Amino acid sequence: MGGMIRFHNTMGGKVEDFVPIEPGHVKLYTCGPTVYDYPHIGNWRAYVFEDLLKRFLLFRGFKVAHVMNITDVDDKTIRGAQAKGVGLDEYTKPFIEAFGRDRDTLAILPADHYPRATAHIPEMVALVRTLLEKGFAYKKEGSVYFAIDRYPAYGRLSKINLEDRRPGARGDADEYEKESVHDFALWKATKPGEPFWEAEIGPGRPGWHVECSAMSARYLGTTFDIHCGGVDNIFPHHENEIAQSEAANGVKLAHYWLHCHHLIVDGEKMSKSKGNFYALADILAKGYEPSDVRYLLLSTHYRRMLNFTFEALDQARTARQRMGNFLGELKDVAGPAEQTASVEPLIEAARAGFVAGLEDDLNIAEALAAVFTLIKNANPLLVRGAVSKDGAAKLAAFFKEIDTVLAIDPKPEVTASGRIDPTLNVRSAELIHTADALTLEIQEKVAARQKARAERDFARADAIRRELLDMGIVLEDTKDGVRWKKAGPPKG
Ligand code: AMP
Ligand code: ZN
Hints:
Layout: E1 6-9, E2 14-17, E3 25-30, H1 41-59, E4 63-68, H2 75-84, H3 88-105, H4 121-133, E5 137-140, E6 143-146, E7 170-171, E8 183-189, E9 204-206, H5 208-220, E10 224-230, H6 234-249, E11 254-260, E12 263-265, H7 280-284, H8 290-298, E13 306-308, H9 310-332, H10 344-359, H11 364-383, H12 389-406, H13 429-433, H14 440-454, H15 458-470, E14 473-478, E15 481-486
Parallel strand pairs: 3-4, 3-10, 7-8, 10-11, 12-13
Antiparallel strand pairs: 1-2, 5-6, 6-8, 8-9, 14-15
The structure holds adenosine monophosphate and zinc ion.
């Protein structure tokens, strides 16, 4: 079933047909947590996006070999351990455990391997040695650096401007901005009070980037299909991974690079100082279900910025509950219906829309719209008692099938009396229509645009339309008034 799967490849910046190296098998590497702190919901956006990708590939019948690294030695973990006066292992342990707990809570399928950087130092040393031998790296004061000038393809992924770099400029930090393109550290000379490993290349510890190059090769081979991360990984992390791996191995590192956009909070970057920094537990403590969070994280296209607000989380909960209550109503279908309506065409249309949406660079808006259209169309039949027990079972089976991808496990909202919550009665057409109701902020913007149009201030009306598009909402002016829908993937 299904057509060609297409993904937006950051390498080249286009949507391309997905063709795995080995038919039927996908090798997937996703950059994992740097375990210097508890994971936040921004991290979970990246991991939920990767889980949607993986689950859809599994749904389409691929076998997926998935590796996610655990960065347990880098600048940040070392700084944290020093500040606390404990060893790296002791320092990172609770964060690694929290990662595993939250991952299971969010119904994310575990990877096949979670290699820890500290357990793969020999592989990293071997890679650095190869780069020295091949002339792509040089030693300086006990450290080893990658010479970006000796690797002409440097900068292709992030399309950085190489003109601005200062010849011979070097940096030791794991993280830096595009503006300071420079030779980067593969192996860092030991410093007092820092953990280090004895090696032929001198005592020291790996740079962050070399960790992923060494561990992906160890578990997936030197070339694999898909490499994922958040957009913040593109430069320098993924750029440097490509340089290290491709210079050392002489083959392409990954065929497809998929990056998710950031999650922000209330329109601002999430940060501890602003007090808008959320771990999963902070949100669950407010009474939300893990599947509300999962639904919210996956329901905005991965290449669009996701603005986290509690209002948006409430909307996600409503949409999920609506699916759950529909399933509850199906359970109530008792016997053979008098006039049996065929639900198969509705299910077929929903499945086709769901699959076609996800095939189109994981267009989740289209996939979910197909599901809610099914609910909307099947409801009047349920109300009329025109769905047979068999039809109800087929509808329920369809929801089970798509939940292998969505993994939100929709359940009816039952009240204390054991009845389905009447305020979420799916039989009300009006409520179904608001399955993806607009947030207040968006409603206000739509109204402001209407007002601007009425006042013939078209420049302002267009500016508001663009703002809405940035928020993932498309407006259509029809003869019956203005309509809105959730935007699919961004163009390009
Ligand atoms: P880190 O632990 O910082 O190395 O990040 C782990 C993963 O989470 C990487 O793929 C990052 O790109 C991703 N990530 C970090 N912050 C955010 C955010 N605010 N929104 C989306 N992804 C993020
Ligand atoms: Zn990585």
